[in-house]
């Protein structure tokens, strides 16, 4: 099963909702597609609402995805708010830490409302 990326332009950010199967390939592909869309729209603030189904990715897959994508994301984004509605455990916190250590301005949130509130502040910072 593939994924579907739905984009909605909001005043403070681009809201991206991704649905489909949770796999290393799908996560990498939707992140690449989202980055291209943000560049094309000159949008540096994005809310990612991940609703992928299936087994969660392992540490090595998460690390590899973040390593590959972080080099492409640095300088493109001012702020990335990330909500994984199916997350369990500490894997998303691990992904956030790896991305932050590589200069990607990302922060995890438990709800879309919290993420939107954070992105609405023009002076928002991940540090």
List keywords for this structure.
globular; 5 strands; 4 helices; five-stranded mixed sheet; alpha/beta; Transcription Regulator spoIIAA; 127 residues; 26% strand
Summarize the structure.
This protein is α/β, with parallel strands linked by helices and 127 residues long.
Structure explained in plain terms:
It is a single chain. The chain is of the alpha/beta class and 127 residues long. The protein contains 4 helices and 5 strands; from the N terminus they run ββαβαβαβα. The protein has a single domain (13-120), classed as Transcription Regulator spoIIAA. α1 (24-41) runs parallel beside α2 and α2 (59-73) runs parallel beside α3 (91-101). β2 (14-21), α1 (24-41) and β3 (45-53) form a beta-alpha-beta unit. It has a 5-stranded mixed beta sheet, with helices on both faces.
Q: Report the total helices.
A: 4
Provide the number of structural domains: 1
CATH secondary-structure class:
Alpha Beta
**From the coordinates shown, what is the CATH architecture?**
2-Layer Sandwich
SSE class:
alpha/beta
CATH topology: Transcription Regulator spoIIAA
Low-confidence stretches: none
Overall helicity: 40-55%
What secondary-structure arrangement, pairings included, does this model have?
Layout: E1 3-9, E2 14-21, H1 24-41, E3 45-53, H2 59-73, E4 79-84, H3 91-101, E5 106-108, H4 112-120
Parallel strand pairs: 2-3, 3-4, 4-5
Antiparallel strand pairs: 1-2
Helix pairs in contact: 1-2, 2-3
